[in-house]
Specification:
- By secondary structure, the chain is α/β, with parallel strands linked by helices.
- It has eight helices and 13 strands.
- The chain has a seven-stranded mixed β-sheet with strand order 2-1-3-11-5-12-9, sandwiched between helices. Strands 4, 6, 7, 8, 10 and 13 form a six-stranded mixed β-sheet that branches.
């Protein structure tokens, strides 16, 4: 009998009430078993939280993918898994998201050449899918292929806090020659928008620019096809 392939979900929970009303409810209403939902609480850094999730699942032989998703996102699990499974099985793809961009000028990826779609509290964010290949995707939802789970790590030495983790991991994947793509995913981001801690965002932006200085000098995609 062959392996039963499994897609897991990782969430860094900062607000239990919001998590229960949004992401947890949509996952459990779809019948996702508790052992496929991995949470981290009381974290000072999303880099550390997500690395601990990677360490927990890295050696699973039956892993289809790991979906790292914000606590305020609701998803249609059946549509999500049906869409993500073939993409994450493609050996050329490292990471899949809902929205992202190519040739980003800074951590503010939306100022680059954006692609994808996301329905959120403020309205529909619509960039289209004419070219789904991007350099980075937004961390509201990042689906990691088995290769990405085995190979990549969130950079706790360069970054701290809760900004920059998504762009940095995506640029790592691109540096390894893997594609980062957006896909049509049925989700809703319950966000009020904004940077949160703008000073922390700016520090992460500066760290990202230093680490990937060659990328920001030349602006094309890093490595890869």
């Amino acid at each position: 009998m062959g392996l039963v392939l499994v897609m897991l979900y990782g969430i860094c929970v900062g607000d239990d009430e919001r998590f229960a009303k949004r992401t947890a409810r949509s996952l459990r209403n779809a019948g996702v078993p508790e052992d496929r939902i991995i949470t981290r609480r009381d974290q000072s850094s999303i880099f550390h939280a997500y690395n601990s999730v990677l360490s927990q699942v890295r050696d699973m032989p039956d892993l289809t993918g790991l979906v790292l998703v914000h606590e305020d996102v609701t998803v249609d699990v059946a549509q999500l898994e049906a869409t993500l499974s073939p993409l994450l099985a493609d050996p050329s793809i490292g990471i899949v998201g809902a929205v992202g961009a190519r040739r980003i000028p800074s951590l503010a990826w939306w100022d680059g050449e954006p692609a994808g779609r996301c329905q959120e509290t403020r309205g529909l964010v619509e960039y289209g899918f004419a070219d789904p290949d991007v350099d980075v995707v937004d961390g509201l939802l990042m689906a990691l292929s088995p290769w990405a789970v085995r190979t990549l790590e969130f950079d706790e030495r360069t970054f701290s806090g809760f900004h920059g983790y998504d762009a940095d991991l995506c640029l790592q994947a691109r540096h390894h020659g893997k594609r980062v793509v957006v896909a049509e995913l049925d989700l809703f981001h319950h966000t009020t928008g904004g940077y949160g801690d703008k000073a922390a965002f700016d520090r992460s932006d500066a760290a990202l620019r230093r680490k990937w200085s060659s990328y920001f000098r030349t602006s094309p995609s890093v490595g890869g096809p």
